[in-house]
Amino acid sequence: MYRTVDQLDRVVERLVATAPEVCTRLPLPETSRQGRAIAALRLAAPDGPPVDERPGVLLIAGTHARELMNPDLLVELAVDLIAAHRTGADLVLGARTWTGGELRALLGAVSIHLLPCVNPDGRTYVLTVDDMWRKNRRDNPGTACDGVDLNRNADILWGVTEGQTSCTPCTDIYCGPAAFSEPENRNVRHLLDTARIDHFVDVHSFSELVIYPWGHAPNQTTDPAQNFRTLPTGTCRPLGRPGYAEYIAPDDLAEFRRVAGRIVDEIAAVRGRRYSPEPGMTLYPTTGTHSDYAWSRHLSDPALARTYGYTIETGPAGDDAREAFHPRDPEPIKREVESGLLGLLQVAAGGAGADAPSTVTG
Questions:
Q1: CB under 8 Å to 286, separation ≥6 — which residues?
Q2: Count of CB atoms situated within 10 Å of the CB of 181
Q3: Would strands 39-43 and 111-115 be described as parallel, antiparallel, or unpaired?
Q4: 146-160, pLDDT tens digit by residue?
Q5: Contact 8, 75 (CB under 8 A)
Q6: Domains in the chain, please, with CATH?
């Protein structure tokens, strides 16, 4: 039911062969821990501004190996966009219809970067050995335990063991021996370093959430001096600051809420599932996550452009964790989240209809 890593790669190859004027395969500089080549896909139609001058969006998935539906979701999003580009066909996602004209406009206005499977070694291990494996397949010397949680390994308060982050290799939430120690994560950083990326989404499962910063502490909008740049990193201890709250500028918080709300509305338009928009801390505290890193970059280095970073948690929680991570029927979940991602792309494009679902049927 779920695609293998090779099958995901073949979809990308077919898209590039079918629509080379729109699709560009972007080989990434690092292979996985087990030597697998990794590539991203860029979608940008030629009938628009120069690609490097357009708003850019980076969508990634497969960071956690057992969350199988999300890499499939990203390649299917690419297939649907290319189908609309070539035929002008509308895209019907449950009760939400995206017109061919809307989808073509997105391809002409936005540079869309997709990294469908950040963690190919982990996905292969899930499909062949252990269907609940979460991490990559790093060998951790001196232990019997393998793997790093790639969504705890980024350089944003790395190694601060707040909440669901650990320095213990045998846990599922091991942050690794150093920030960006993992080649799979350095590929994500490479895309952020080399492309204009205005919006970033890391697609995960589960809990029906649209998450925005911050993950390590509650948000506050009044004290700019209380910010992550003043906190120690690599401590392998919690923050140890009772009452600490992380600063976020009021305008930025309003923008995060606006865009998260648009994603939520587009998801709900498909079949009525209402995802919750919330700061990452509301789910549980974390450090070293991709979405917080994407947002933090311009705060750490003002020479960098700002990138609004989100995490989407696809699908509902339930008593059966396996069913939540890789459901027997992922199609309704993939359709609704595809609509949410199209809403984000429309926001990035800044075009007409960027504030509400524009075509609803049924």
A1: 151, 152, 162, 163, 164, 165, 215, 216, 280, 292
A2: 14
A3: antiparallel
A4: 999 999 999 999 999
A5: yes
A6: 5-349 (3.40.630.10)
